[in-house]
C-alpha cells in the first residue's frame, strides 16, 4: 500500500498534502515508522505500519493488550490515538527521538539519576500481576523459548557464518551445554513480567522521563532478564561500578516489593547466567541482520557483545564450556 492509503484510513479528515512526512529509523523489526507533522500548527504524531496487525482482532493483539496493561498500571508508554487492523496501522503519540542511548551519550552526568529512574520503572513493570491464561502472563521464557534463542544463534552466528568453522561435534557439544544453561534459568517460582527487550533504544526520555516502547513481546521470566538487557546492553556499555550499584538497587527493590527472597549473591549468579543467554541471543540477531538481511548497521555490536562473555565465564563455572567454545569459534570478531 502507498502511504496516502494508510493516512486515508487513519486520518480521513486530513489531506496528506497538509502533512510533512519523514521516515523514522526503526530497530530490528519489520515495522515501519513515520513522523507526521501538521504543516498548519507543527503538531506531530507517529504513523506505525505493522504487518503483523493486519487482519487481527485488536482486542487480542499483543501490542494493544500490553500497552493497555502498562498504561493502566502507570507505566508511561506512547498513547495510541487510532488504529486500523485492516491495513495494520497505528497513529501514535510522538514522544520524540531522544533515546536513553542518545541522552546518556550527550549528557553522561545523567547516568546516575536517570538510570535510577529507569530501574524504578523496571521494578514497577515487574510488579504487575495478571491472569496466567491471558497475554502476556500466559507466555514465558520456558525451555522452548530459551532454546529457540540459543538455536537461532547457532544457526546464524555459527552454521551459516563463513568466518566460523564449527565441526558437527562442536555444534552438538554447544547445544548440550545450552540445554544445561537453560535448565538453570527455569526457576518459574521466581518469574515476573518482563518487557523482553528493555535496552537503551527502547526507552525514550523526553524531558528526562522514561517512556517505554517496543513492549509487545512481554512475557514472564526471571527479573534478571530485563535487568540484563539494560545493564549488559549491546548498544551502550555502562561503567562496572555503576552496573553494580544498579544491580543492588534492582535486587533491593525486588525484595522490598516481595518479588524475590534470594540473597544478593544468588541474584548476581542468575544475572550472569541470564546475561550469557541474553547476549548470545542478541549475537544471533546481529548476525542474522548483517548476513541475511544485509543490514550492516548491527555489525559493530557483534564484538561489543562478545566482549561481555569472558566476565561471565570467569565468574560462573557452568558457563565455561559453552562460553569458551563460542569465543574460540568467533575469535575473528573478538577485539
TrEMBL record:
Coiled coil: none annotated. Gene3D superfamilies: 3.90.1200.10, Phosphorylase Kinase, domain 1 (3.30.200.20). It comes from the Bacteria. Pfam families: APH. Residues 21-250 form the Aminoglycoside phosphotransferase domain. This is Phosphotransferase. It comes from Prosthecochloris ethylica. The lineage of its organism: Bacteria, Pseudomonadati, Chlorobiota, Chlorobiia, Chlorobiales.
Amino acid at each position: 500500500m502507498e502511504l496516502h492509503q494508510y493516512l486515508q484510513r487513519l486520518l480521513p479528515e486530513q489531506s496528506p498534502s497538509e502533512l510533512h512526512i519523514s521516515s523514522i529509523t526503526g530497530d530490528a523489526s519489520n515495522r515501519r515508522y513515520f513522523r507526521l507533522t501538521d504543516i498548519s500548527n507543527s503538531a506531530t504524531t507517529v504513523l506505525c505500519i505493522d504487518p503483523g496487525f493486519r487482519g487481527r482482532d485488536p482486542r487480542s493483539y499483543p501490542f494493544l493488550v500490553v500497552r493497555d496493561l502498562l498504561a493502566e498500571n502507570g507505566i508511561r508508554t506512547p498513547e495510541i490515538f487510532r488504529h486500523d487492523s485492516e491495513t495494520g496501522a497505528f497513529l501514535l503519540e510522538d514522544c520524540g527521538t531522544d533515546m536513553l542511548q542518545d541522552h546518556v551519550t550527550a549528557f553522561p552526568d545523567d547516568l546516575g539519576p536517570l538510570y535510577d529512574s529507569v530501574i524504578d520503572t523496571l521494578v514497577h513493570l515487574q510488579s504487575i500481576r495478571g491472569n496466567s491464561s491471558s497475554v502476556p502472563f500466559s507466555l514465558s521464557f520456558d525451555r522452548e523459548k530459551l532454546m529457540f534463542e540459543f538455536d537461532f544463534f547457532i544457526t546464524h552466528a555459527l552454521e551459516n557464518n563463513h568466518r566460523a568453522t564449527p565441526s558437527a561435534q562442536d555444534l552438538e557439544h554447544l547445544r548440550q551445554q545450552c540445554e544445561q544453561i537453560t535448565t538453570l534459568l527455569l526457576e518459574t517460582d521466581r518469574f515476573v513480567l518482563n518487557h523482553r527487550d528493555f535496552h537503551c533504544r527502547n526507552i525514550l526520555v523526553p524531558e528526562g522521563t522514561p517512556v517505554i516502547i517496543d513492549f509487545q513481546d512481554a512475557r514472564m521470566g526471571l527479573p534478571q532478564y530485563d535487568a540484563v538487557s539494560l545493564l549488559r546492553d549491546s548498544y551502550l556499555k555502562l561503567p562496572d561500578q555503576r552496573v553494580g550499584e544498579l544491580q543492588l538497587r534492582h535486587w533491593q527493590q525486588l525484595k522490598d516489593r516481595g518479588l524475590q527472597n534470594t540473597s544478593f549473591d544468588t541474584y548476581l549468579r542468575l544475572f550472569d547466567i541470564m546475561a550469557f543467554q541474553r547476549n548470545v541471543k542478541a549475537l544471533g540477531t546481529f548476525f542474522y541482520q548483517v548476513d541475511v538481511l544485509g543490514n550492516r548497521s548491527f555489525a559493530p555490536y557483534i564484538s561489543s557483545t562478545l566482549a561481555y562473555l569472558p566476565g561471565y565465564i570467569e565468574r560462573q563455572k557452568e558457563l565455561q564450556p559453552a562460553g569458551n567454545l563460542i569465543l574460540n569459534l568467533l575469535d575473528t570478531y573478538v577485539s
